[in-house]
Amino acid sequence: MAAPMSPCFALRGSEGLWLRDGPPSNRARDAFHRDKSRACKVMTFSGDGALFAWCNGLCIQVADVSTNKVLFTLQKRKTSKMQFSPKGTYLMTWETYIVTEKGQQGNPNLEIWNARTGELVRSFIQKKHQNWAPQFSHDDTLCARNVTNEVQFFENGFETIIDKLHLDKLTHFSMSPWGPPYLVAAYVTGSKGSPSSVKLYRRPNFTTVIGNNSFYRADDVALLWNPKGKAVLLLLSMESTSDSYYGEQSLQFMGADGVSCRVPLGKNGPVYNAEWNPKMPEFCVVYGFMPAKITLYNLKCDPVFDFGTGAWNSIFYNPHGNILCLAGFGNIRGNTEFWDLKQKKQIIKSDASDITAFEWCPDGEHILLATTAPRLRVGNCFKVVHYTGTLVCEEATPVNEELWEVKWQSVPEGTFPVKPIQYKRVDSSVPQAPLPKKVEAYRPPQARGHASTFKLHENELPSNAKKDENLSKQALKNKKKREAKKAKQDQAQSDPMSPATSQPSQQATGGQPSRPQSSGQPARAPAGSSSHGQSARMGCTGDPEKDKKIRNLSKKLEQIEKLKQQQAEGKQLELNQLEKIKTVDQIRQEIEQIRLA
What is the pLDDT of residue 301? Predict the structure, then answer.
């Protein structure tokens, strides 16, 4: 059954569990019988959003979202993990493994149910909670499960094992989400000096390894497939190293053809997050010591866009893949930036302090934000916000109560069309909070009234704004003044009646010529004075057009010399800066050709 056009979202906390409709109604769903149990442990929607399941500490209940009616109840009070298969055919539940007194072998704790009837299909023993859930293909026909040193495959049910992948020291695996043929990436832990590795296979031919990526410095590996299963990212991490108490992370890439490489990161430090675009063949990574850097890569691992640096540790693509949110949550003061990925243009920048949960609505336009326990036990609340910054819905949790989890209902792909991106705030009937006032840092009395140039961090600009990155604050200010003056002069030339052309510039200074403002550039020689010596020193020719070209090229040489000095001092340069250094000989040849022409 298709999900409704207005998706709902579920909330779980000390007040129980309930549903609310999303935009445009934004009302509590009274037709859904609220579960008031204070022990709701887990909840989940099916992939198409038709079913909703939860455990309230007494039993598991599965409801039809469209009718708000409970389909069946399972007497499983200790369930702590729950998940639907992609098509909603099966419901998987897991509870903590317990050994019985009669023997060493405990009871099955991983159970697979028919999601429509509640009939038990198969049960297994699954001791570890990491990677507890079996992995299904996108159509629910193929299922793979990890046991000791082996991956077992089932097809159209769980009666017989149709394939096996056996590897010594197999830690975990990941099957590509799309096929056939399905690719399987298996992480094998190294031992006795041998490296760890991720091996890539094409099912059902497990005798041939189509890709192998080996490495030493890793305690764990996260396997991140792109939506079409054509490539996988390997996020390698070590808990701690001699260089850093916080450990070490790196990122590797493996294609479906087995070709692998290290993703080039433009800054040293940890890798906080990596995400695939759900619609485009690209991925985004946030990495590096604070302020962190965010870069967009293509399937060749070439950087295609740099968002600069900032207080970020998270990235979130909307379901349509046309908007990217850059965020800093957790131990970073919450701030968010929303970017139009097609135009490579920032939509809005806003503050989102004390946010512990962020989730895009399936419509690709709204975001569900929440402050939840146990991360924060005071000020729990949720709000629905449009990506342009407009508050759509907000509700605070009552005093002495807690909010634990919020989750949007899933919808089938293609339910919501892609809409043009807006840059102005949309209208809302909800009163909008005033913009927070900028808090100024404390300054001692003797320093007040004077401009401060101190910065804790020098943030880098995005790729499309880096042409001005080498200019100081004063130089940027003077540049803007020159541009404004030039625009005013151009307007005056096009309008003969403009005051700018009819009044002499001396009026501002009582009839005396006004002094040119300092812009960090050498003052021009006054009319009538000899500038031959200066022209000779600059290598000028006397031709105004040629001299202008030579001055511009000379400025480029000065910038390259500064970059070389920074490189000699040990500063890590960007790719575009390194390419700029390589052009020094070409620029000198151009200058010589202009002089001789």
Answer: 92
